[in-house]
Design goal:
The chain is an alpha/beta fold and about 375 residues long. About 45% of the residues lie in helices and about 15% in strands. The chain has a single domain, classed as Divalent-metal-dependent TIM barrel enzymes (TIM Barrel), CATH 3.20.20.150.
């Protein structure tokens, strides 16, 4: 009787264990997709799975765009295993004078560190830069502020600045509430609609003018960034078409980035490889990763996917677009990329506000799980 009772207790424990394992497998499938499920299956078969942590060496830095004022999102980021933050400092630096940049950035960095997050870079211009991009009077003062901001970033140990040169119009969509899978809300660009919207208040600006402006800027800022030890990671135009509502867009091809890198050759003159934008340029994005990554020029990756062409496209989920995401992550690893990578422009899911299209949290959590699953399955170290 005692033996039978122990056997029944053992069977019950085994059933409970199986139920827990099944529950974990279902959760993993929701968060990370087939890659994680495959890893769980390997464990069940007694096959050791690769380490995801990059603690034993360098690895890709999994990051999210976070605002320290939104404590809940910062907590969620840490709970899902994200240790690195990409932040905007423009609002904070606009409120102070140049001599206060270092103190202000040091406080921002400390606040993130108290939340368990390391700032791996700032995104968007750290200070006002529209006059720089448009070539308007007052751009020299903006450049002086910019130089001071880059010096301050270096002094407090923030190693990278992701910036763009989209003059007059930033990243642009003609619709931000199209239905994606299951009714999730995503964004779309249609150039035919954009053309009907007409010129902006800036009128027509030629590509040549924008090239002159970025050359003027780079010759001033890159030497300062090199001395400060801050990598300047240039983001492509989004969408990568020209003109957009009359304004020339120049960062629309691989050859354009080759030209940028030659304007001021420097170890800190590099690229934010926003994957979907490079895809929309129409070239071979894997070849571009091998080229620019092999040169050590990819400083930051925006992992996102789109369906369509530069003339008309919509954002997809990270797991249902046309790009082979596992192959792309493998490729970034193979070329030696060890900078920050963040999922970008995820659809807005049920119960979330669509006030900031592409930047709600639930879709990013899903994307992080998917990325971690791929990394684990392919033995890609992440930090």
């Amino acid at each position: 009787m005692a033996i039978n009772r122990r056997n029944r207790e053992s069977e019950q424990k085994s059933i409970k264990s199986d139920r827990r394992a099944f529950g974990k497998a279902v959760l993993a499938g929701v968060l990370g997709g087939p890659a994680i499920l495959s890893s769980i299956s390997q464990k069940a078969q007694g096959i050791s799975s690769p380490a995801v942590s990059g603690k034993r060496g360098r690895g890709i830095k999994l990051a999210l765009m976070l605002d320290i004022r939104n404590k809940e999102k910062c907590i969620l980021a840490r709970q899902i295993g994200v240790n690195h933050a990409i932040v905007s400092v423009n609002r904070a630096l606009r409120r102070v004078t140049r001599d206060q940049y270092v103190e202000t950035l040091a406080k921002i960095k400390a606040a993130y560190e108290e939340s368990g997050l390391t700032i791996s870079g700032v995104e968007s211009h750290p200070v006002a830069a529209e006059k720089i991009k448009l070539g308007l009077p007052g751009r020299d003062e903006e450049i002086e502020n910019y130089c001071a901001a880059i010096e301050a970033l270096g002094k407090v140990g923030i190693p990278m600045c992701c910036y763009n040169f989209m003059a007059g119009i930033g990243w642009y969509r003609t619709k931000t509430d199209i239905a994606e899978r299951g009714g999730a809300l995503s964004s779309e660009f249609d150039n035919e609609i954009a053309k009907k919207q007409g010129l902006t208040r800036w009128g027509q600006i030629s590509e040549g003018k924008i090239w002159d402006n970025i050359t003027y800027f780079l010759k001033r800022i890159i030497p300062v960034a090199e001395k400060a030890g801050v990598k300047m990671a240039l983001h492509p135009d989004d969408p990568p078409i020209s003109p957009l509502r009359g304004i020339g867009r120049i960062l629309t091809s691989g050859s354009a980035f080759r030209r940028v890198l030659k304007i001021v050759p420097s170890p800190v003159n590099g690229i934010t490889f926003c994957q979907a934008n490079f895809k929309l340029m129409g070239g071979d994005i894997q070849a571009l990763v091998r080229e620019f990554g092999g040169q050590g020029k990819i400083f930051f990756v925006h992992l996102r996917d789109v369906s369509g062409t530069g003339e008309r496209f919509h954002e997809t989920f990270h797991d249902n677009g046309p790009t082979d995401m596992p192959q792309m992550l493998k490729l970034y690893h193979e070329v030696g990329f060890d900078g920050p990578i963040r999922p970008d422009h995820a659809p807005t899911l049920a119960s979330e506000s669509n006030e900031s299209p592409g930047y709600a949290m639930q879709g990013k959590i899903y994307a992080i799980g998917y990325m971690k699953g791929i990394a684990q399955a392919l033995n890609i170290p992440i930090m």
